[in-house]
Amino acid sequence: MIGGEIPVRDLKLPDQRHPEKAHRPDNAQPKKPKWIRVKAPVGKGYMETRKIMRDHKLVTVCEEAGCPNVGECWNQGHATMMIMGEVCTRACTFCNIATGKPPEDLDPFEPGRVADAVQKLGLNHVVVTSVDRDDVKDGGAEHFAQTIRAIRHRSPGTTIEILTPDFINCDPAVLELVVEAKPDVFNHNLETVPGLYPEVRPGARYFHSLRLLQRVKEMDPSIFTKSGIMVGLGETRQQVHQVMDDMRAAQIDFLTIGQYLQPTPKHHTLDRFVTPEEFAAYEKAAKGKGFLMVSATPLTRSSYHAGDDFARLREARERALAAAS
């Protein structure tokens, strides 16, 4: 099977951090359709990326969330680093990241280690995300800002994309700390339609998340804003189209839509597998609504092909500005 294609449900990542969450053969899981296939996580590039992450004591959302694209991305040296620990204070029912009370304070040396890893990987574009840290007064906003500044100092030519929490329990002013550090892309995922928030994101609020992204654009229009949702959770097509309209009203530039894959039987129940044809229809509709960039496929994830997408995003903005002049 080395180098071949295997179903997502049979993918076992090396060095699982949460073996109690790993899939077991006796767990009843829906059969994956033929279009959801991933390459086994092997290869020289994969092992080199993994070693850099371990040497710098860094956590990646690729492993923690069991991303199906980890083999492809890590072979290219692309890893999405997850700052502020590996335990999240929220309990979203779609997510495979460990939840509870974080055992440690924020590590003041982590921004520097992230910057070192980015430099060693030679990344042109990096994505940095985090767990939710509701136990920290500013939700980790200053930690994000420090990480952005450290990467800029060490790798000035690298473009930076951040995927942040909602900072819902913080003073609204903390968002300024992140925006003033000038990431190239500010991403915060809405994850699903508002009607499913009580079940899927019980600690979040749909319109708060929308407003967060709108405020980023108001503070600094040069920063690209980005958000994503999963489908297959029980939403309707009409609800997805309404989310698109809400995002455009908040001036969000880039939309991602991917298939929800239920991590374990304890997580939110998978409603259905959305077909590639339906994803193509969503992409067409989103482009018609004015998004600069849309990625909508079964295996789309927030940071999947993020560097290539960012280059296309900049080109799309330039074309839009030229057309408006």
Automatic annotation (TrEMBL):
<keyword id="KW-0408">Iron</keyword>
<keyword id="KW-0004">4Fe-4S</keyword>
<dbReference type="GO" id="GO:0016992">
    <property type="term" value="F:lipoate synthase activity"/>
</dbReference>
<dbReference type="GO" id="GO:0005737">
    <property type="term" value="C:cytoplasm"/>
</dbReference>
<comment type="similarity">
    <text>Belongs to the radical SAM superfamily. Lipoyl synthase family.</text>
</comment>
<dbReference type="GO" id="GO:0046872">
    <property type="term" value="F:metal ion binding"/>
</dbReference>
<dbReference type="InterPro" id="IPR007197">
    <property type="entry name" value="rSAM"/>
</dbReference>
<feature type="binding site">
    <location>
        <position position="62"/>
    </location>
    <ligand>
        <name>[4Fe-4S] cluster 1</name>
    </ligand>
</feature>
<feature type="binding site">
    <location>
        <position position="67"/>
    </location>
    <ligand>
        <name>[4Fe-4S] cluster 1</name>
    </ligand>
</feature>
<dbReference type="InterPro" id="IPR058240">
    <property type="entry name" value="rSAM_sf"/>
</dbReference>
<dbReference type="GO" id="GO:0051539">
    <property type="term" value="F:4 iron, 4 sulfur cluster binding"/>
</dbReference>
<dbReference type="InterPro" id="IPR013785">
    <property type="entry name" value="Aldolase_TIM"/>
</dbReference>
<dbReference type="GO" id="GO:0009249">
    <property type="term" value="P:protein lipoylation"/>
</dbReference>
<feature type="compositionally biased region" description="Basic and acidic residues">
    <location>
        <begin position="7"/>
        <end position="26"/>
    </location>
</feature>
<dbReference type="InterPro" id="IPR031691">
    <property type="entry name" value="LIAS_N"/>
</dbReference>
<keyword id="KW-0411">Iron-sulfur</keyword>
<dbReference type="InterPro" id="IPR006638">
    <property type="entry name" value="Elp3/MiaA/NifB-like_rSAM"/>
</dbReference>
<protein>
    <recommendedName>
        <fullName>Lipoyl synthase</fullName>
        <ecNumber>2.8.1.8</ecNumber>
    </recommendedName>
</protein>
<feature type="region of interest" description="Disordered">
    <location>
        <begin position="1"/>
        <end position="32"/>
    </location>
</feature>
<keyword id="KW-0808">Transferase</keyword>
<comment type="pathway">
    <text>Protein modification; protein lipoylation via endogenous pathway; protein N(6)-(lipoyl)lysine from octanoyl-[acyl-carrier-protein]: step 2/2.</text>
</comment>
<dbReference type="Pfam" id="PF16881">
    <property type="entry name" value="LIAS_N"/>
</dbReference>
<feature type="domain" description="Radical SAM core">
    <location>
        <begin position="74"/>
        <end position="292"/>
    </location>
</feature>
<feature type="binding site">
    <location>
        <position position="92"/>
    </location>
    <ligand>
        <name>[4Fe-4S] cluster 2</name>
    </ligand>
</feature>
<feature type="binding site">
    <location>
        <position position="303"/>
    </location>
    <ligand>
        <name>[4Fe-4S] cluster 1</name>
    </ligand>
</feature>
<keyword id="KW-0479">Metal-binding</keyword>
<dbReference type="InterPro" id="IPR003698">
    <property type="entry name" value="Lipoyl_synth"/>
</dbReference>
<keyword id="KW-0963">Cytoplasm</keyword>
<dbReference type="Pfam" id="PF04055">
    <property type="entry name" value="Radical_SAM"/>
</dbReference>
<feature type="binding site">
    <location>
        <position position="88"/>
    </location>
    <ligand>
        <name>[4Fe-4S] cluster 2</name>
    </ligand>
</feature>
<keyword id="KW-0949">S-adenosyl-L-methionine</keyword>
<feature type="binding site">
    <location>
        <position position="73"/>
    </location>
    <ligand>
        <name>[4Fe-4S] cluster 1</name>
    </ligand>
</feature>
<feature type="binding site">
    <location>
        <position position="95"/>
    </location>
    <ligand>
        <name>[4Fe-4S] cluster 2</name>
    </ligand>
</feature>
